[in-house]
Amino acid sequence: MVNKITFSRRKGPPGPVGDKGIQGKPGDK
Asked: Which residues contact 21 (CB under 8 A, 6 or more apart)?
């Protein structure tokens, strides 16, 4: 789970937490 959180942070700011987990806003893409 830590890896997913780090990936989201790298992509952009932390987004809303849903059933998929922590989703990061599109930043790198």
From this structure: 1, 4
Terminal-to-terminal C-alpha distance of the chain: 21
Which residue, chain included where needed, has tokens 């780090």? 6
Query: What would the pLDDT profile of 1-29 be if each residue is shown by its tens digit?
Result: 555 555 555 555 665 555 555 555 555 54
Alpha-carbon distance 29 to 8, whole Å? 12
What is the three-class DSSP state of 21? strand
Give the pTM. Answer: 0.15
Q: Which domain holds residue 14?
A: 1-29
Q: How many domains does the chain have?
A: 1
